[in-house]
Amino acid sequence: MFSWLGKDPGRGKDGDVLESVADGLKSLYTRRLLPLEEYYQFHNFHSPALEDADFVNKPMILLVGQYSTGKTTFIRYLLEQDFPGMRIGPEPTTDSFIAVMNGDTEGVIPGNALVVDPKKPFRKLNSFGNAFLNRFLCAQLPNQVLKSISIIDTPGILSGEKQRISRGYDFTQVLQWFAERVDRIILLFDAHKLDISDEFSEAIKAFRGQDDKIRVVLNKADQVDTQQLMRVYGALMWSLGKVINTPEVVRVYIGSFWSKPLQNTENRKLFEMEAHDLFKDIQSLPRNAALRKLNDLIKRARLAKVHAYIISHLKKEMPAMFGKENKKKELISKLPEIYIQLQREHHISPGDFPDVKKMQDQLQIYDFSKFHPLKPKLIEAVDNMLANKIASLMNVIRMEENSMPPQAVQGGAFNGNLEGPFNQGYGEGAGEGVDDEEWVVAKDKPKYDEIFYTLSPVNGKISGASAKKDMLNSKLPNTVLGKIWKLADCDKDGMLDDEEFALARHLIKVKLEGYELPNELPSHLVPPSHRKNTFFSE
């Protein structure tokens, strides 16, 4: 248990004793931030109030893409198991939002039942109405992967106005709701379908402010050759640059995420490395879940503060008696100037303000005279939370991480290459020859010996200075060569015999081929004449 919030002046209680980080986040939100949100109608303008399930739910991944880009197949690939409600085909098959979650038995929970379950983080989706809830369901099944994460499958996006009208609910608003609550947003693209339709563009723009969560997967990349893949990648980056307005380049993972044979194997190595990187990113989500929730709470608090300043300013500018409607129209039209004024008065970054056009549209239906004036105590409570309480909670997160075993996603595709010869990098680089009876360096030792004997060995060994002259020819940095020296000098006598020198040359070759050096010398790389001392002296 953790005691960290200290005495709350507003309640007059002793320090809070909390069972977990989730309790701390919940306490901060309900005591410090929620009163500000309610007072200035934040939930009507931006995001519904958070509930208990939002603080304790597992990390969630949101999959978004146009139809037939492989979203449902991607989930099937990760789980290595079919899930209820799954439909796969070249036509637009997924017409619903499907929350794929862990459960004791397989089954489907329809949307209307799902949004009344207090244990699920979906209760606030009720506001999108029956048109959405009839297209929302939860697929539950017992699966090792889903014990650590949940995955949200979304309807395939088509181009054209017809689909946007026929949905019956605000598709981009639903995506925005999920984006604020998930830990990772994966945009899937097909190597043969790179065009970003109008609705897909609007969907991506709905993720504004969540850029750190976005990853991109270029799927079905085995269906093109290397030259075509380079062109496809370039075209994809160009298309994304037009809709994702960030100076940083978004991370794109290239591969073919299904269990069928590759159609084109010339990029197999690339696909393996990309899949490994993507899996590492997903596996880190449980470990970073608390930090993500804290980060989202901070973003929410900053937006709530700005919203309070905007609403209170509009209230202050309204006349007491006459001309209220004309003044309201004037204030809405001058909202961009009001933003600039508030930035200067309160020293707020422009990036903390909500979209001005959206805010202007929302303000049309409100009576500004009924807004509340600025209440400094509410602002001070949030400022204190951001300045002091958040730092304390960061320490609690570190304590909780240190007291718990490392968390990572396991099962399904994540276990397929953990052990054995199909592990990432197995038998490559420093791992080459791991299963061979003969020392792997032996095949190149004759040519290394020729170099060794030109360096004038004394009593079968060359000095560090002599070895340095030769090793510098590799043009590797001194820090790298220093590590190679430490690995190769097995008996730590400051000199190299012919086998140690051959090992040093082998490690240089490993590094020049682009592989990482091991921190400790693997047993299969230890020179034969040094193995007795290394392994059997005990």
Commentary on this structure:
About 45% of the residues lie in helices and about 10% in strands. It contains 21 helices and 12 strands. It has helices at about 20-40, 40-45, 50-55, 70-80, 110-115, 130-135, 160-165, 170-180, 200-205, 225-245, 270-285, 285-315, 325-335, 335-345, 355-365, 375-405, 445-455, 465-470, 480-490, 500-510, 530-535, and strands spanning about 1-5, 15-20, 60-65, 95-100, 105-110, 135-140, 150-155, 185-190, 215-220, 250-255, 460-465, 495. The strands form 3 sheets. Strands 5-6-4-7-3-8-9-10 form an 8-stranded mixed beta sheet, sandwiched between helices. Helix 1 (about 20-40) runs parallel beside helix 12 (about 285-315). The longest helix has about 35 residues, at about 285-315. The radius of gyration is 30 Å and the shape is elongated. The chain starts with a strand and ends with a helix.
In short:
By secondary structure, this protein is of the alpha/beta class.
Main attributes of the structure:
single chain, 538 residues, alpha/beta, 8-stranded mixed sheet, two-stranded antiparallel sheet, 12 strands, 46% helix
